[in-house]
Amino acid sequence: MKYALFTVSSPTITLEELAPQLHELGYDGWELRVTDEPPNPRGMDFWHGNRCTIPATNFAANVERLKMLQSANSLELINLGTYVRSDSPWEEIEQAVANAVAIGAPSLRINVPEYSPEKAYMPIWNQAREDFKRIEELAAKKGVKALIETHHGTICPSASSARMMVDGRDPKHIGVIHDLGNMAYEGYEAYRMGLEMLGEYLSLVHVKNTTVYPFATRADKTVEWRRKAWPVHQGVADVRALMRALMEVGYDGWISFEDFSTQTKLEERMQINIEFVKQIEAEERAARNTDAVQV
Fold first, then answer.
1. How many domains does the chain have?
2. Which of 64, 140, 158, 260 is spaced 20 to 30 Å from 213 by Cα?
């Protein structure tokens, strides 16, 4: 497998600082965060003031800079992490696709709408299905792939719901990002089952983790539980089980880290994460080879 980092998870340093660190740590590529961020009084965090974000509306001005960074540090660009959705204005979707084409990205994220209990679900679902028909046509015309992500709070939080959304679309131009960290919030399904359901639509795997904690005790003595980001090697999502399932279904593509934990400094968690998951991969491959010899 090959390993990348999604730059949303490196908000405190620049791309010029990040690229050589990724190369030194043994990463093979990166996934670039592309969005226009409005000013925010909270200052810098993962989603506001992120120094590794490229503006969507001024993307073309950064293409040569990005290509030089990638070449100088032997990094592949695996995906543009855009924030457009299937229900975004069409011109924003066209711009996102044009940005992917401009830099030669093989794919870009175009996510599904959010879920709201205040709105009827099926009309939103049906409209998204129709929207992805049009997105597929645009992606095919431009030679890229549009990826939806299993994400809590959306109409596709699970692998099975993502498969239903993309079913019937051309897997050359429509795919799915499997994210075990998001599905620890909502949408968990046995990893191998979910991966098998995705089948040829499985295009990218995100790795991050979370934990569950008691937030408050209500008046009736019941407990309100919440979730928050946690180190990849310590959270409730079973990374080893995911890696084993990926091997079992024959996946040998990209693993992209999207770690939102803050218990350690960025440089340290980048190193811990890749060493941890590469070690799991090595151990699982060795175990599979041993089993094959015994058979």
1. 1
2. 158
Residue 295 predicted with pLDDT over 70: no
pTM of the shown model: 0.96
Burial (Cβ within 10 Å: 0-12, 13-18, ≥19) of residue 177:
buried
Asked if residue 158 has pLDDT above 60, the reply is yes
Check: CB of residue 11 under 8 Å from CB of residue 43: no
From 143, 7, 10, select the one nearest 62 (Cα to Cα). 7
Residue 62 lies in domain: 2-294
Q: What is the CATH number of the domain that holds 101?
A: 3.20.20.150
pLDDT of res. 65: 97
Cα distances (Å, whole numbers) of residue 191 to 2, 94, 149, 184, 195: 19, 33, 15, 11, 6
Measure the CA–CA gap between 81 and 157, rounded to whole angstroms.
18
Question: How many angstroms separate the CA atoms of 12 and 100, rounded?
Answer: 24
Buried b (16+ CB within 10 A) or exposed e, 1-10: bebbbbbbbb
- 252 CB burial (10 A radius; 0-12, 13-18, 19+): exposed
